[in-house]
Amino acid sequence: MNALFDTRNNPKLVWAGVAVIALTLLVLPFALAQVGTTWVRITNFAILYVLLALGLNIVVGFAGLLDLGYVAFYAVGAYTYALLASPQFGLHLPFWVILPIGAMVAAFFGVLLGTPTLKLRGDYLAIVTLGFGEIVRIFLNNLSRPVNVTNGPQGIAGIDPFSFGAFDFSKPETLFGLDWSGPIKYYYLLLAVVLMVLAVNVRLQNSRIGRAWEAVREDETAARAMGINTTRMKLLAFAMGASFGGVAGGMFSAIQGFISPESFVLVESIMVVAMVVLGGMGNIWGVVLGAVLLSFVPEILRWTVQPLQEALFGRMLVEPEVIRMLIFGLALVLVMLFRPAGLLPSAVRQRELTDERAA
Amino acid sequence: MLLEVQGLEVHYGGIRAVKGIDLAVAEGELVCLIGANGAGKTSALKAICGLHARRGRVTYAGQALEGLPVFELPRRGLVMVPEGRGVFAQLTVAENLAMGAYARSDTEEIAGDLARQYASFPRLKERRHQTAGTLSGGEQQMLAIGRALMSRPKLLLLDEPSMGLAPLMVAKIFDIVREVAARGVTILLVEQNAKLALELAHRGYVMESGSITLADGAKELLANPKVREAYLGEDAG
Prior knowledge:
The complex is a heterodimer.
Chain A: H1 11-35, H2 37-62, H3 71-84, E1 85-86, E2 91-92, H4 95-114, H5 122-142, E3 163-164, E4 167-168, E5 173-175, E6 178-180, H6 182-205, H7 208-218, H8 220-225, H9 230-256, H10 266-279, H11 284-313, H12 320-338, H13 347-358
Antiparallel strand pairs in A: 1-2, 3-4, 5-6
Chain B: E1 3-12, E2 15-25, E3 30-35, H1 41-49, E4 55-60, E5 63-64, E6 78-81, H2 93-100, H3 107-120, H4 122-126, H5 137-149, E7 155-159, H6 167-182, E8 186-191, H7 194-200, E9 203-208, E10 211-217, H8 218-223, H9 225-231
Parallel strand pairs in B: 3-8, 3-9, 6-7, 7-8
Antiparallel strand pairs in B: 1-2, 1-4, 4-5, 9-10
Helix pairs in contact in B: 2-5
């Protein structure tokens, strides 16, 4: 069994593995569409969460800054898209113009949050970021008077889907003899974006910037004494993390066609933090795994809990929603007990935890 | 003078921890700043690098350091080894040393410098894949000094390198400091262990509750009855 995964002595295995994964990802939406288009949609949301988790991983995993208000950047990106491509202001800019704008606006908000919190660490930073997330949501809720910007709690409807000229991502089509539903088209777009973001993440981690973040996380004073501009590095982490959140938000907006402040509540931030922590802070592949698991498992439970109860007891005793959260919480506790550094820990975090035990 | 400090003051709230000190270090010198716990030595050193807000003038290599951020200093050859060593505990020894060269861009020469550190600290070479947190205190101090040397300092500020180390290790660390100085690196050494520091240094400053009370050659200070009584634990009589 071990020989099967011995990639060091057999580099061909790596390519074989990559090929298998690539093939799976390519045919996945059509396979899922056989079960139901809902599952393609669920997969799309899972990919959005992967994007969010990768963005947050830069802030939390790489730079070690605990951010509990990350959903604010998701909201900023989503609203930027919604305002520039909906009947709200009668603007209908193309998505490839808006997504970069959304990323930049989110990055600006990242710096806005980062600047006053430069001296804060750990719990204190967490509280401020938590407040920031709530402030953004409350602003979105109330920016309907005196000038109506966000339409308040009613949210913004009729948001343009992504389109390239006549090619509309939301409309079903038959291409190459296959039925391409809207979600399937979005799936490939999302996959492309997530691959790009992954590449950026991998490059970042092994770069000078990645090492500087590591130093900042370990010992800020020593990092400065080594010639690292810690202020710039922390703001860069906030800005980069936020910009990924902004891109994810823009895509969310387009896919949903409707957004309201309700989509950007605290629980969403906590969910993304849970994905990062559960998967393995600082490890890109761990974070991806965490996001995929935490997106799919609740959905799978949603679809199995009710039939299971009906088969066992003849009727439904406990609401699926309740049992979902119960199992979910239990799973998190178990993972933290048995794999405290996450399912796929980063090399450095793994050391941290084993050192503590040894001490 | 490579480093000149005039009227340096450090305040913590309403308390003046450093009350306007003057000191100078010439190129190639090894100067020590000695004094008891709480005399303000570490505060003074941190303020020189800008890690603390300060009043007064600090001139390095003929340039005032006013408004220059801390992270610019290694690029100009001024490097501090902070109190408590400040190694990156979860990074390996090799990664720590690499971090020392962060401010440099001459990749080829960095490799040579790394080999040089390993040659002078064979202990670090043995443990290069180990995390810094698993090293002993003395090894961590070696690592901190080695890491600082990776940025090719002209002036090295050492803050209490003997702190918390066993006597044998202290002697070893002081040997290393002597070697580094012999290689032409100018050193300002802050120490509580007055005897060892003075035996090593060319000149010394004695600091007492925020002020410099004595400044003299190291030999003269070692012979000074006041120093002998207060810092070397000898009776005045």
